[in-house]
Write a structure and sequence with these properties.
- This protein has 301 residues and is mostly helical.
- The chain contains twelve helices and no strands.
- The protein has a single domain, classed as MetI-like (MetI-like fold, Orthogonal Bundle).
- The longest helix has 37 residues.
- The chain is elongated, with a radius of gyration of 23 Å.
- The N and C termini lie far apart (47 Å).
């Protein structure tokens, strides 16, 4: 009886959680001014993404609408960010393009996690030949620069926004596989895992109920930092023509179009570029703050 009680106690007292309570995270995040500023920037762009069609003064300009008589107008009270070569309002296109960029980031992160996290957890928990096989496949993907590999996949799948989502997801999952595998390797020998095995828990139960919950902290930090990189990668694919296609309002595509008029209408590239810069900055600042809160050991000394 005493041994059984000890086993149950070990199972209940699982490994020290790498995540903290919501209140603690929120308090520490507010104390970090830069990270809190990053959060405010992200919330601002999220509101633009949700309410963009109602905020934009000319929502019809996000599509193929043309007003040649108003082309290449400089910023004014009527057109805050000026107009492009088709006479479309750039402010409206930047605002509505927020939804496109954030949607790609969220979908790509979700697909990436669905592939990388289970693979990493299974490889790290079981080890042996399965781990070796998974990691060698991961190394093959990591051997190529992610942007070049994403370009190749997007071209094969036919250039477009959905191809860009799939291409980025297929190049990003190895990073999560390696991250979760490392966590699983350190957790599989913990006492709470041995206690669960002694109680007859299945391997799948141990992985998804004991191993993965203790990996949430590093995963959240990684995802917050990766969102900015994925948005930048999406813009890069749109810029070179294998991502979003005209007349879609997407920041990278808008910069690509505006480069032809950079000397005469620099606002065509400046404002979409500013939106990319602020979004990536916001996610990076928030990610740095979350890393300090959820993983204090990684804090620079």
């Amino acid at each position: 009886m005493e041994g059984q009680n000890t086993t149950q106690e070990l199972t209940v007292q699982q490994a020290p959680a790498q995540t903290k309570s919501k209140n603690t995270v929120w308090r520490q995040l507010r104390k970090n001014k830069l990270s809190f500023f990053g959060l405010l920037v992200i919330v601002f762009f999220l509101l633009l993404a949700v309410f963009g069609p109602w905020i934009a003064p000319y929502p019809e300009d996000a599509g193929s609408n043309t007003k040649i008589e108003e082309r290449l107008q400089s910023p004014s009270t009527e057109h805050w960010f000026g107009t492009d070569d088709m006479g479309r309002d750039i402010f409206s296109r930047v605002v509505i393009g927020t939804r496109v960029s954030l949607l790609v980031g969220v979908v790509a992160i979700f697909i990436t996690m669905c592939i990388g996290i289970p693979l990493g957890a299974i490889a790290g928990y079981y080890g042996g030949k399965l781990d070796e096989c998974v990691m060698r496949i991961t190394d093959v993907f990591l051997a190529f620069p992610y942007l070049i590999l994403a370009m190749a996949i997007a071209v094969i799948l036919k250039p477009g926004l959905y191809s860009a989502m799939v291409a980025i997801s297929l190049t990003w999952w190895p990073y999560y596989t390696r991250l979760v595998r490392g966590q699983a390797l350190s957790l599989r020998n913990q006492s709470f895992v041995h206690a669960a095995k002694m109680m007859g828990a299945k391997n799948s139960h141990i992985i998804f109920r004991h191993i993965l919950p203790n990996c949430i902290g590093p995963i959240i930090v990684n995802a917050s930092l990766d969102m900015g990189l994925i948005i930048l990668a999406t813009a890069s694919l749109g810029f070179i023509g294998v991502g979003a296609q005209p007349p879609m309002a997407e920041w990278g595509l808008m910069i690509s179009t505006g480069r032809e008029f950079f000397m005469t209408a620099p606002w065509m590239t400046f404002f979409p570029g500013l939106a990319i810069f602020l979004t990536v900055l916001g996610f990076n600042l928030l990610g740095d703050g979350l890393r300090d809160i959820l993983d204090p050991q990684s804090r620079p000394r």
